[in-house]
Amino acid sequence: MKVNIHHSWKHRLVNEFEKPYFIDLVDFVKHEYAKTKCFPPGSQIFSAFDLCPLDAVKVVIIGQDPYHGDGQANGLCFSVADGISHPPSLINIFKEIESDLDIPYPESGNLERWAKQGILLLNATLSVRAHQAGSHQNKGWELFTDQVIKLVSDEKENVVFLLWGGFAKKKAKLINSTKHIVLTSGHPSPLSANRGYWFGNKHFSKANKELKSRNIKEIHW
Prior knowledge:
The chain contains nine helices and six strands, in the order H-H-E-H-E-H-H-E-E-H-E-H-E-H-H.
């Protein structure tokens, strides 16, 4: 596994890459990808960083695990490759955008278009075994991505963090809420959304309102 991420991240995370836990993590991930099918493809593990340089980050969305179905994960949380059916959580995200901003439901579930506008689509765990949810949790990825969240909090200002569901909300302690905007709601998964914890949160219009009020270009969701 080659750690090939945008230079704006690389030189700020170089100390992290040299820590024993990360060296062990790299060995684990290399071994997993060599012996079994894993997602996303190795070249896309760091896509969230490649497509959204640190200097460009305006919004952070935190997911938990990559999708573990064939052809789904592309290195961005909640996103799927072009031509892939939209998973339930993504469907509910698009439905809320449709309701909140009166934007037509999109054909593609590929969120690269968001990443390129300054949205860091960060899963806490960046890899997974095929068809085995959570199989790469607690191997070191979470330590790394927590450092990423802290780095954004420390080095940036006026970033909108969207924390959806209990897992993401726990990351709030890593964020300096005096200089960033933290919006929380239930998770877009059907289990949460169908109980009334997701729909109507208006996070997409709220995020744009916060950005606009700080003279930061809004997101075209």
